[in-house]
Amino acid sequence: MTKPVKIILDCDPGHDDAAAILMAAVHPAIEMKAVTVVAGNQTLEKTARNALNVCSASGRCGLIPVAAGMSRPIVRQQVIAGDIHGVSGLDGPSFGPPDIEMDPRHAVDLIIETLMASDGDITVVPTGPLSNMAMALRMEPRIAGKIEQIVLMGGAYQLGNVTPSAEFNIYADPEAAHIVFTCGRPIVMMGLDVTRKVLATPDVIARVRSLGSTQAVLFAEMMEFFAKTQKEIFGWEGPPLHDPTTIAWLIDPGCVEVKPMRVEIELRGELAYGRTCCDFFGLENSNDSPGSVTFVEKSALDRPKSANARVAVDINAARFWDIVYETFAMYGK
Ligand code: RIB
Ligand code: CA
Fold first, then answer.
1. Annotation says 103 is catalytic
2. Burial class (CB in 10 A: 0-12, 13-18, 19+), 76
3. What pLDDT is recorded for position 81?
4. How many domains does the chain have?
């Protein structure tokens, strides 16, 4: 048995974040060192309460610090996704009083303290806007050398979901995303291009619900609400299970195909603000462009721009759903 991957899960619960928490909390391949919360799907007050409720419902987070962080993006005005996740940010299930309390530290401080105390063997797993991670990198730049890798849900090299160009986690704090994508650490980007291939359809939900545990039923109740809003807005037959793709990749990297690419965040565009501009064909990773254009004079647009991320380009959906089912089965009946 290989050693579990140590992670900090930085999230904005959110139905799919909640599923990621429940999976990471129980799977032996993962050791959660901290759960940090950011505003995103809903305001920080709500995402923090949701994170506490879900960590408590897992029954596995009693020794894991859960801390609230950035309540606002770094530069832009705040946006939330209440239309998708409801007024509470986790509409659908009801929760009893949590049996754990929020850690009093700010999430940015917790991230810094956890990474600086580590042997540099922690994977950071952001599944919300990147405000906490960006602020931590700016407050204590030395943490970059302590991050083994960043496995994030966000972005897309194809269509956006909050504008035609941009995906929500990046759009909600593009400047933070720029800081993370330029931090120099290995990045794996699970974008909409693959998360839209894993829709929690009724048969998927029923399969997990049949396990019968509190956590399996909670997953089903969350997905049933999430399905309604996704159907109304996008017409999907089931909600894309965005955030757990990061956890599934950590459990079995073979379930997702990744491709090295240069990823840059559009910060100045009016129409494409917050887009992950992904150089899928490597057009800018050499001075000799492949027959497209040549620069007459030096400029800020000069090449080469080498790959700074491995971007998910395909996912084995059947294997992904088996991972989800097998992980929830670990909660027993
Ligand atoms: O665009 C999807 C992402 O935005 C997911 O992480 C979802 O939870 C929201 O944060
Ligand atoms: Ca999220």
1. no
2. middle
3. 87
4. 1
